[in-house]
Amino acid sequence: MEGETRYLAATVFEAANYSATDEEINALAANMEVLELRGLSKLNQRLLQGGRKVWDTFTEHNFASKMARHHAPEVPILYEPPDGLRRPPDFKIEIGGTIYWVQIKSLSNPERENRQARIVAGIRDAAKAIEIGKFFGVELAGDFAEGDVLALVEAVAQKATMPGDSSHNPFPPAGTTRATFDGWQPNKTTLSHLTLVLTCITQRNNS
């Protein structure tokens, strides 16, 4: 193992005020080397920058390391991919022609997480009743409520009836934005209904 990488790993723990064992330092150094080889050095830099959310970055770092070890080098793993979304998901992984969007989320507030899970499930279920074969993704603001679900799906459905793809559609169209959504045609997959494939949730209300 490269001595420089091990030194950097030790520096990360020291900055986080955590007394790491040699085994933990070696494990982090090995993960850092794996990510460097897979073009994910941005995650290494995030760890070295430290900051208030360094432990959230550790979670992302560990996840990326596991994915990099589990999948062949030919499988692209992108961190915060620049795909045109205002707030990109944490990871984009393409396996066998299928794209997986991954958002790493903190479970520090179970009540909030449960409410958000109900909202996402409600959007997904309501969309299944719309017989339009398109994908869509939503970005929800912190003040998006369960009572907004049906109106949002109706707005997505209305936009989906138009030809071509759409992006950065605000909801509601006037006033304070509580969500934005994108819609696009599948390349090969045949869909029987509107299908939610991407969800991002902001923790601050839009203004």
Folded structure, characterized:
The chain is of the alpha+beta class. It has 2 domains: 3-102, no CATH class; 110-201, no CATH class. It is 41% helix and 18% strand. The chain has helices at residues 3-15, 22-37, 41-49, 54-70, 110-127, 149-160; strands at 77-79, 91-95, 98-102, 135-140, 166-171, 179-184, 195-201. The strands form 2 sheets. It has a 4-stranded mixed sheet with strand order 5-6-4-7, covered by helices on one side. Helix 2 (22-37) crosses helix 4 and helix 3 runs antiparallel to helix 4 (54-70). The model has no long low-confidence stretch (mean pLDDT 86).
Rg calc: 20 Å
Q: What sequence of helices (H) and strands (E) makes up the elements?
A: HHHHEEEHEHEEE
Give me the number of helical elements.
Answer: 6
Structural class: alpha+beta
Percent strand equals 15-25%
How far apart lie the N and C ends? 49 Å
Main sheet, how many strands, which sense, barrel?
4 strands, mixed
What brief labels describe this structure?
207 residues; alpha+beta; four-stranded mixed β-sheet; three-stranded antiparallel β-sheet; 7 strands; elongated
Task: Offer a concise description of the structure.
The chain has a 4-stranded mixed β-sheet, covered by helices on one side. A 3-stranded antiparallel β-sheet has the order 1-2-3, covered by helices on one side.
